[in-house]
Design brief:
This protein has about 120 residues and is α+β, with helices and mostly antiparallel strands. The chain contains three helices and three strands; from the N terminus they run αββαβα. The protein has a domain of about 80 residues. A three-stranded mixed sheet has the order 2-1-3. The chain starts with 12 loop residues before the first helix and ends in a 5-residue tail after the last helix.
Length: about 120
């Protein structure tokens, strides 16, 4: 968030709803039963206690997340029953997810700033 003389851009309701959905999905549900996974997301189990996380499919395009998938394939194979296990500590996984979110947010800010610049440079007709 920018401080000082600059105002942070106002988030639309759709962006806030998406961020709250992601925040809710990245927290352990605490229930023993397997909850339904929303469209566009998938569940992974991380750590020694197999804590469940539901993450966006878009993470599969990120090199850091692909490395985790390769570790999972090497350790557990491709035919995992009952969900996808990732062999890393929960703290490491949460740090990777936070880094991916920060990268996505900065990319979105750059796109919106570029869009504002192109509209301000447009010739009025």
């Amino acid at each position: 968030m920018m401080m000082g003389y600059f105002w942070a851009p106002r988030k639309s309701a759709a962006v806030e709803r998406d961020q709250s959905l992601r925040a809710g999905l990245l927290v352990d549900g605490g229930s023993g039963e397997a909850a339904a996974v929303p469209k566009g997301y998938f569940a992974v189990y991380v750590g020694a206690e197999a804590r469940r996380f539901v993450v966006p499919m878009g993470y599969l395009h990120q090199p850091a997340f692909r490395a985790l998938m390769e570790l999972a394939a090497e350790e557990f194979g491709f035919g995992q029953a009952g969900g996808l296990r990732i062999p890393c500590r929960e703290e490491d996984f949460v740090a990777i997810v936070a880094a991916l979110e920060a990268t996505a947010e900065s990319r979105q800010r750059r796109r919106s700033a570029a869009g504002r610049r192109s509209r301000s440079n447009a010739t009025p007709w």
